[in-house]
């Protein structure tokens, strides 16, 4: 089916994009992106904020009412109810994302595992929460995963520790399977990713035989990930399971390049943005061509990639709400994509991070930095909000 001009989505339609936002929320978002647009604040903000939080200075309330409110659903699952309802008004789903990072103790990993299971249980039976997500580093020690990736032999104690990581991962995925709630395993740094990929494939082999439950994440700013996706498709075909693919461009570029330079190995990152875009779009084409065996979550804030997927769906006469295709963006960003796509009948969900304010700060700093490092992201958000403010006369 050829895409006619009248079928093309207008990603500049701010009336639809911001329909769920009140005038006060719109004004606050405008003010916030103005601040994020200042590179000085983005660079100085993290150390200053961490110092003030660690010193016990009363800034937590300010953070919660501003940047936290823009990019997070709340401190608990229950506090996310307002965001879940607000997104659902625009036919956009919620992906509950427990965003506590950087912990090291076993008891914390156990507690995080139980919290992730609570997100799956919360999603069960609620169509407004179509997918859930977790990070392996939320349930296992980074240094242990790093040792495994480096193919170093584990001590007996470390092997027992890794067995516990696998058991937590399986417990989460088994709950998702029993509740019929899809769950995504997030991608992380390249030097722990092989272990994550291995765990994800293992979970898919176990739980994706009859339906799509577990997704792995492919970071297309890595030059090897398109080949990995194609290889995993062959494994899925051979072993008779559905491959769950969440495709993103990537989240650790500066860190990855620096480590490669410092340690003297070739950078795993694509040489330029055009190469990332090429592989990302090729991963979309490949997945749509094999939709019987692959389910995709197109995680992107890139308008061209979103448009490409909508055009392929129409060209191949695939239902807009096909269960194997989802679009996903982060809460507080790119509402022009999320709400205009959902308005056209596509499956769309927003990542809704939650957790205690102090524990979620690393996530919030990454979002602020991402907005300034992605060319034009902040100015794009600002121009769209300004357009809607003008339309409303506020």
What attributes characterize this protein structure?
394 residues, alpha/beta, 8-stranded parallel barrel, 17 helices, globular, disordered N terminus
Could you explain how this protein is built, in words?
This protein has helices at residues 14-17, 23-36, 39-54, 60-65, 67-71, 81-89, 106-123, 142-149, 156-179, 190-207, 225-239, 253-263, 273-289, 303-315, 335-343, 357-373, 377-392, and strands at residues 93-98, 131-134, 183-185, 214-219, 243-248, 294-299, 325-330, 348-354. Mean pLDDT is 91; it is low at 1-5. By secondary structure, it is α/β, with parallel strands linked by helices. The protein has 17 helices and eight strands. 56% of the residues lie in helices and 11% in strands. It has an eight-stranded parallel barrel, surrounded by seven helices. It is globular and about 65 Å long.
* Share in β-strands: 5-15%
Mean pLDDT: 91
For the largest sheet, list the strands in their spatial order.
1-2-3-4-5-6-7-8
| Helix run count | 17
Largest sheet: 8 strands, parallel, barrel
Radius of gyration based on Cα positions: 21 Å
Low-confidence stretches: 1-5
- SSE arrangement, N to C: HHHHHHEHEHHEHEHEHHEHEHEHH
Q: What characteristic shape results from the CA principal axes?
A: globular
Structural class: alpha/beta
Q: Helix fraction?
A: 55-70%
């Amino acid at each position: 089916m050829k895409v006619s001009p009248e079928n093309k989505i207008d990603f500049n339609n701010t009336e639809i994009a911001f329909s769920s936002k009140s005038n006060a929320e719109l004004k606050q978002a405008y003010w916030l992106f103005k601040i994020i647009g200042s590179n000085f604040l983005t660079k100085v903000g993290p150390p200053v904020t961490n110092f003030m939080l660690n010193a016990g200075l009363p800034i937590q309330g300010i953070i919660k009412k501003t940047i936290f409110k823009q990019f997070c659903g709340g401190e608990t699952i229950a506090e996310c109810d307002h965001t879940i309802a607000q997104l659902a008004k625009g036919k956009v789903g919620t992906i509950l994302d427990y965003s506590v990072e950087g912990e090291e103790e076993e008891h914390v990993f156990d507690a995080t595992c139980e919290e992730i299971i609570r997100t799956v249980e919360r999603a069960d039976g609620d169509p407004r929460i179509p997918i859930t997500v977790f990070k392996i580093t939320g349930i296992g020690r980074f240094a242990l995963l790093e040792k495994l990736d480096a193919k170093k032999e584990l001590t007996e104690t470390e092997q027992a520790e890794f067995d516990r990581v696998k058991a937590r991962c399986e417990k989460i995925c088994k709950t998702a399977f029993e509740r019929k709630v899809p769950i995504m395993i997030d991608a992380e740094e390249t030097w722990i990713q092989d272990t994550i990929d291995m765990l994800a494939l293992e979970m898919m082999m176990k739980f994706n035989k009859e339906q799509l439950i577990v997704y792995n994440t492919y970071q297309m700013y890595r030059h090897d990930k398109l080949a990995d996706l194609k290889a995993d498709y062959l494994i899925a075909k051979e072993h008779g399971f559905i491959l769950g693919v969440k495709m993103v461009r990537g989240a650790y570029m500066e860190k990855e390049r620096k480590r490669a330079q410092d340690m003297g190995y070739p950078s795993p990152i694509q040489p330029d943005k055009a190469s990332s875009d090429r592989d990302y779009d090729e991963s979309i084409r490949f997945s749509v061509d094999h939709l019987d065996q692959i389910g995709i979550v197109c995680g992107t804030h890139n308008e061209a990639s979103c448009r490409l997927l909508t055009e392929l769906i129409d060209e191949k006469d695939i239902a807009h709400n096909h269960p194997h295709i989802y679009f996903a963006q982060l809460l507080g960003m790119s509402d022009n994509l999320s709400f205009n796509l959902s308005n056209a009948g596509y499956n769309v969900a927003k990542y809704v991070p939650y957790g205690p304010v102090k524990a979620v700060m690393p996530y919030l700093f990454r979002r602020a930095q991402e907005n300034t490092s992605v060319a034009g992201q902040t100015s794009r958000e600002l121009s769209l909000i300004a357009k809607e403010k003008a339309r409303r006369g506020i």
